[in-house]
Amino acid sequence: MTLSSELYSQAQHVIPGGVNSPVRAFKGVGGTPVYFDRAQGAYVWDSEGKRYIDYIGSWGPMILGHTHPAVIDAVKQSAEKGLSFGAPTEIETVMAQKVCELLPSIDMVRMVSSGTEATMSALRLARGYTGRDKIVKFEGCYHGHSDSLLVKAGSGALTLGVPSSPGVPAALAADTITLAYNDSDAVRQTFAELGEQIACIIVEPVAGNMNCVPPEPGFLETLRAVCDQYGSVLIFDEVMTGFRVGLQGAQGRYGIKPDLTTLGKIIGGGLPVGAFGGSRKIMEHLAPLGPVYQAGTLSGCPVAMAAGLKTLELIAAPGFYDDLSAKTAKLLQGLQAAADHAGIPFATNQVGGMFGLFFSEEKSISRFAQVMACDVERFKRFFHAMLDQGVYLAPSAFEAGFVSAAHSDEDLQATIAAAAAAFKA
Ligand SMILES: Cc1ncc(COP(=O)(O)O)c(C=O)c1O
Ligand SMILES: N[C@H](C=O)CCC(=O)O
Predict the structure, then answer these.
(1) For a tag site, which of 3, 21, 87, 107 has the least CB within 10 Å?
(2) How far does the centroid of ligand 2 lie from the alpha carbon of residue 310, in Å?
(3) Which of 240, 243, 276, 354 to mutate to test the pocket of ligand 1 (most atoms within 8 A of CB)?
């Protein structure tokens, strides 16, 4: 038994499935989850001291690499002053000002403690603001695990085969309309029939929870147009894409202004943080200004604000995103060449520092159905071959991967060499 499998078996007695978030359990790839002990830069080390090049980066937050000295220092300094107070602190305003400065669609922002809280709260606000109940989401998109959004969801729910979870009241699920991602005609048709009853559209502007699927030209524009026409709220869930695909997120990259934006991951620098914000007109409906209630004991935790602010400061360095994109492109070109050389049908998607790998005959993957048609068995074998060689990819064919500023050229070359061996095998 490895130390990881020993730890996993102990955990299974006291934690459901041995994990605190299902996708960690390796159900999507088989085998035993690896238990980590420490991390630095592009690397994570397991409990037995084996080193892995990490392409998960804590599911996105570690855009600077793990334990960046300046971030750790900011955390230490803040922690020494007090972990949390349950009362306002100056750094929360500094964070809000920074978010408003970076994302022009946001006039006001509220901090929460996870992406799930951010999307759940944004949904309630959109419903409270419009006085409507129905929402539109897209199949394979994941917006956290609140009831209204756990319908035909992606990520771990898709990996485990429960995209619409038991426990979600049928009456609530009935108000969630799920459409195919990148299908603009379906959006227009649905709004033509039900537009006046629809509170909001929530979308991952680049889908990252059904692997990585970018928006087709015109898709996000269609969402903006129907929301304008029918008075619905457009919510960009940028929990993953925010500060990942560019400093202005997907909204900056594609030039579309949502009414509300949800954030998480990078904004917390690796600590538990989420946020939602948008136009003053909508945000002023939130308590204590307005009637839509939302709260959180640890919301705006100063230590997490310190980690997030330091991260936002460092990623604003000139050329940061060009370098990150170039590295990611280099990695994907190398993987594609290795797959082609071995005669393995393979395709990739990339948006900035976010990527997707597909075992597919199709070269362009833009639809959920295409993702579902990929060869998952082949992915599982690839995943384990990479893991054995010290490369840690997401343990599911339905998750995006992430490159960090800490990945060196040697890391990318070592990953490509490992993939070449895996494809050959
Ligand atoms: C796009 C998106 N929205 C929401 C969430 C939920 O965030 P959290 O896991 O922090 O609750 C996630 C990740 O899990 C996500 O990728
Ligand atoms: N896809 C999820 C986040 O983006 C994976 C993280 C989790 O649910 O544990």
Answers:
(1) 87
(2) 23
(3) 240
